Amino acid sequence: MTQEKLGEIVRLSTLQIQKYESGKTAITASRLLQFAKLFKVPVEAFFSELPDPTEGSNFPKEAEALTLFAGSVEGRELCAAIQGIRSDRTRRLILQLVQELGPRQTES
Fold it and tell me: Is residue 83 part of a domain?
């Protein structure tokens, strides 16, 4: 299908289609869904060539640990308490304190 024909079907200019294709303009989720339906493919098909951002890192382990902590009672309480602090400076100081305590503290 040509860019011109696609533009006619989805009511966009050929220039806009070219901008989407080249990456000069970000495409919205709703427009991506429209294209997926038109081409009868899952939305994921548009992402098949992207590199895995977690490849070569320990991201999954860190993400799992963070998710587990955030879902714990202490995690939820800590997040709620920090969100309630209005001062950016105070939140940064608390972060520094926790970073200093974290690696050295043993679980009791």
Answer: yes
Would you state the pLDDT for residue 106? 54
What does the mean pLDDT of the chain come to?
A: 83
Q: How is residue 57 annotated by DSSP? A: S
* CA pair distance 25, 20, nearest whole angstrom: 5
d(CA 2, CA 17) in angstroms, rounded, equals 10
Instruction: Summarize pLDDT for 46-67 with one digit per residue, the tens.
Output: 776 666 665 666 566 777 777 8
What gap in Å lies between CA 45 and CA 58, rounded to an integer?
26
Among 68, 100, 98, residue whose Cα is nearest residue 81: 98
Q: Is residue 53 part of a domain?
A: no
Count of residues making up the chain? 108
Residue ranges making up the domain that contains 14: 3-47
Residues ≥6 apart with Cβ < 8 Å to 6: 12, 17, 38
Distance CA 43, CA 81 (A): 39
